[in-house]
Amino acid sequence: MELVRIDGCRRFVSSEVHKIISQEDAMNERIEVLRRLQSIDTQVKRLVGDKLYRGYDVQKKQHHIQQKKAELSKLGEEIKSVQKNVGSKELDLKSREAEINKLRLQMNQVKTNKEYNAIKTEIGGKEADKSVLEDAILGMMSQYEEIQQRYKSFEKEIEHEETQLKELQRQVETDMKTLETEINELKKKRDKYASMLDSDTLQQYNRLVSHKDAVAVVNVVNKVCQGCFMSVTAQILNQLMSGKDLTFCNSCGRILYLESGNEDVEEDVK
Questions:
Q1: What domains are defined for the chain?
Q2: Which regions in the chain score pLDDT beneath 70?
């Protein structure tokens, strides 16, 4: 007979019972280590995700600025095109004016009314062409001014966006350092808890974590696995109650455990 503490009371039990109690205590400790390990892995996964999304914030802002710059470049090309067209029309206008001046000189030298009227009619046609060109140039100049205003507005927007980007990059850099520090601290804790497990248990846990979205250890509540929400068999419940070895869900393969004081399960197993 050996003296042990059970439910807060000291009692004499046989060596075989003492061995079973020791096995249960060892399994409970192993499950607790696995749960702590899982909690750390969950936190690390969340922090790594936070780092990734913070990097996306910068990339998203940079992409937005690049789009603005592309639009600005298009406006610049439009300005050049309008300037070129205005220049071409102004040359045409000067050509018409030169032709009109030449015809007026010829008008002063004609000797018959027929020649005079012919030149006058031709000048009228040239004047009409000149008027059309002047209207076209005025329209282009109005278009040019409107595009110029949009161009300057875009320049200011881009300048403001780039100022915001620099501030965001500084903030993200600070956040990244903080997140990296937290991750490193958690990894140190993980190494400590991992060293408490035997190699087989740790290997099984790591395999499950890599395939089960970082949830490898789950509770059984009302005879239901909280990982896949499928009912567990009486045999699985018996294995859990015995506390001799790790018990896995037949449906999802996760490591199962029972919370202390799960009376309904205990009664069902009995």
A1: 47-197 (1.10.287.1490)
A2: 1-24, 260-270
